Structure formats: structure tokens, C-alpha cells
Automatic annotation (TrEMBL):
Record's keyword terms, sorted: Cytoplasm, Methyltransferase, rRNA processing, S-adenosyl-L-methionine, Transferase
Job of this protein: Specifically methylates the N7 position of a guanine in 16S rRNA.
EC number(s) per entry: 2.1.1.-
GO MF annotations, alphabetized: rRNA (guanine-N7-)-methyltransferase activity
Pfam name, any one: GidB
Listed HAMAP family: 16SrRNA_methyltr_G
Domain of life: Bacteria
Signal peptide: none
The protein's name: Ribosomal RNA small subunit methyltransferase G
Gene coding for it: rsmG
Organism encoding this protein: Chondromyces apiculatus DSM 436
Top class in the EC scheme: transferase
Record InterPro entries: rRNA_ssu_MeTfrase_G, SAM-dependent_MTases_sf
Record-listed S-adenosyl-L-methionine binding positions: 93, 154-155, 170
Length: 249
């Protein structure tokens, strides 16, 4: 099934954001971000749906089209360059889909669970995933499974002791609280990781977890300063090593 056409201005914006990127190099040996045409066109479809639903329900506070594209895509681009192949990833407080749905579109090998308590946002996410599946934007390319939308709060899910490999969240809980919750959500994984996405705040500290990478970058279209911090669980008896701080070009 084909979807109605979207504006070429949006297509150009998304293509520009993907081509500029965040200035961070992808780590060697890790799965690269899918900066290909399929990912770009599904990102455009999703952002176009946000713009049309946002006229009826409150989905985003973005004030300009550049901000909307950066807000939805840029942090996911950074995470997508690092997350291990085939990982089970949870995004707590997905809202309109950032960063979890963007991550699913950029990395079809990942199994995403999107957690959101508000019914109207859950409806948006389920409708969008359904539309993308029907148009095959989400169905092609060796995808493990379609992103799953769980209506509820991160606290409730954490109490059920799920075994996600990777936990991400943005603008939902205070950073220290999120790091604790992310640790609980990944407690059953062999090599868990938690991502804390920040603007200018300092990264939180949690005993038993170390900062593996502290990535500073700028959003491609608006140049907003961002920071994505990747935490790994420390092996028993290990001492923390200094984090990687790549330069932004
Ligand atoms: C400010 S929005 C951020 C949405 C998205 N992550 C982003 O950065 O664009 C916060 C979202 O988290 C949801 N939320 C708030 N508390 C939550 C909780 N304890 N567990 C899961 N989601 C929560 C809200 O309903 C809202 O959709």
C-alpha cells in the first residue's frame, strides 16, 4: 500500500540532517547507521505523520521544521552508531517516537520496545507503526520484529524484571533517576548498557556502572549542543577507565 505523498521540503530536511550527521565518527567494527534511502524515506513518513497529528493532539513542542527534524532524528543517529547488532532495546517515555522509533527505522536489526503512558501518544505510535508496516517502510530489510508499543510507565515495567540489553530515554525522568531505572530494566542482560541523553547537565553517577563513552555533538540543522553518555555495567572487581570524548568537527 502506498501512503499519500509528503512534502519535498521535509524530504530535503531529513536528507540534509542525515548527510550532515552529528559530526561524530561511527566506532570501528560496530554496526553503522543505516544512512540509506529506506531509512530516510521511513523517517520522512513518520515525521510527516507527527506534523499532521500534532495539529490535533499535543505531540511535540518543536517551533520550526528544522527543530522538529533534529529533535526526532539526531540523538537516535548517535545511539544507532553504537548499539550492538540484534540488541533488545527499550525506550522509556517515547512520546512521538524519539529516540526509540527513529532508532528502529535507522537500525532494522534491533528489537525495540517503546514505553509510553499517555493513550493519545500510544495511539499515535501504534497507528504510525501500522502505516509504516503497510507501506513496507518497516517491513523490509531483515527486521527482527516491528517495534512494540507498551502502554505504561517505566517503573511498572522495571518491576516485572525484563531483560533488555539496552535502555534509552530522553526528556522523561531526571538523569540520575533514569540511570537507576535503566539499570533495573537491563538487570537480566549479559552485557547491559544504558544511555543518558543530556543538553548541558553533568552525567549522573551510579555505583556499579561506568561511563564507557561521553559523546558531545551538535544537532545537524539547529546546531543545538547535545551530550549522549553510554554507561556499561562494571565487571565485578574492575576499576573505571576514563570515558571517550571524541571531537566534534
Ligand atoms: C517530554 S516527553 C519526551 C518524549 C520523547 N522521549 C522526546 O524526547 O521527544 C516525556 C514523555 O514521557 C512520558 N512519561 C512521563 N513519565 C513517564 C514514566 N514514568 N514512564 C514512561 N513514560 C513517561 C510522557 O507521557 C511523555 O510522552
Amino acid at each position: 500500500m502506498s501512503l499519500p505523498s509528503v512534502s519535498s521540503a521535509l524530504e530535503e530536511r531529513v536528507a540534509r540532517a542525515l548527510s550532515i550527521g552529528t559530526g561524530l565518527p561511527a566506532p570501528e567494527g560496530e554496526a553503522a547507521t543505516a544512512g540509506n534511502e529506506a531509512a530516510a524515506s521511513s523517517l520522512v513518513r513518520w515525521i510527516d505523520l507527527i506534523a499532521s497529528w500534532n495539529a490535533r493532539i499535543d505531540l511535540t513542542a518543536a517551533r520550526t521544521d528544522d527543530e522538529l527534524v533534529d529533535l526526532m532524528v539526531a540523538d537516535a543517529l548517535v545511539i544507532a552508531a553504537h548499539v550492538p547488532r540484534g540488541a533488545r532495546v527499550v525506550d522509556v517515555g517515547t512520546g512521538a517516537g524519539a529516540p526509540g522509533l527513529a532508532l528502529a527505522l535507522l537500525r532494522p536489526d534491533l528489537a525495540l520496545t517503546l514505553v509510553e503512558p499517555l493513550q493519545k501518544r500510544v495511539s499515535f505510535l501504534r497507528n504510525t507503526i501500522g502505516a509504516l508496516l503497510q507501506s513496507e517502510a518497516l517491513g523490509a530489510g531483515g527486521r527482527a520484529r516491528a517495534p512494540f508499543v507498551e502502554r505504561g510507565r517505566g517503573e511498572e515495567l522495571a518491576r516485572r524484571r525484563p531483560a533488555f540489553d539496552v535502555a534509552v530515554s530522553r526528556a522523561t525522568l531526571a538523569p540520575a533517576r533514569w540511570l537507576e531505572m535503566g539499570a533495573a530494566l537491563t538487570a537480566g542482560a549479559a552485557a547491559p548498557e544504558v544511555w543518558v541523553l543530556l543538553a548541558k547537565e553533568e552525567p549522573p553517577v551510579l555505583p556499579g556502572w561506568e561511563v564507557e563513552a561521553d559523546l558531545r555533538y551538535r544537532w545537524p540543522l539547529t546546531s543545538a549542543e547535545r551530550r549522549a553518555v553510554r554507561y556499561l555495567r562494571q565487571a565485578p572487581g574492575s576499576t573505571a577507565s576514563p570515558p571517550t570524548v571524541p571531537e566534534v568537527t
